[in-house]
Amino acid sequence: MANKPCVLIDINILLDVLQKREPFYEISAALLAVVEIGRVKGYIASHSLTTLFYLIKKDRSAPEARATITNVLQFIKIAPVDQSTIEQALNLDYRDFEDSVQMISAVQCKADCLITRNVKDYQPALLSVLQPVEFLATL
Fold first, then answer.
1. What is the pLDDT of residues 44-59, one digit of tens each?
2. Which run of H or E residues covers position 56?
3. pLDDT at 3
4. What's the CATH code, domain 6-137?
5. Cβ of 137: how many Cβ atoms within 10 Å?
6. How far is the C-alpha of 128 from the C-alpha of 130, rounded, in Å?
7. Buried/exposed code over 85-99 (b: 16+ C-beta within 10 A; e: otherwise)
8. Distances in Å between the alpha carbon of 81 and those of 18, 50, 95, 104?
9. CA distance readout (Å), 111 to 5, 21, 55, 62, 105
10. How far apart are CA 23 and CA 59, in angstroms?
11. What percent of the chain has pLDDT over 90?
């Protein structure tokens, strides 16, 4: 990972921080911090933002969901999900189609790796799939 690494961040990492989920909060927050300070270029798949909005609205409110996503977009870029993404994802033999879309989205935005807590869900991997602690150890 020469220069500034580029990563696609699975929604579970954002939820760890936003919901202060233990025991994952601290390491997930550390990952987001290195993205926020610009040491790492971070992406989130576009379809994850609708899920994130829904979950925040359900737990809190629509205005809080809007504010949270606005804040996230200050330091995380959106990896587009388009027809090509979906068509390629349909060819991956993953148990969960959403994970297939995440993987193809990571490949299309030229990420060095996909960061998730569910590494086993992304097999066979088309690029490196790491847990936050593993990725942070490479910096």
1. 999 999 999 999 999 9
2. helix 46-59
3. 84
4. 3.40.50.1010
5. 9
6. 6
7. beebbeeeebeeebb
8. 23, 12, 19, 9
9. 8, 26, 26, 31, 9
10. 20
11. 98
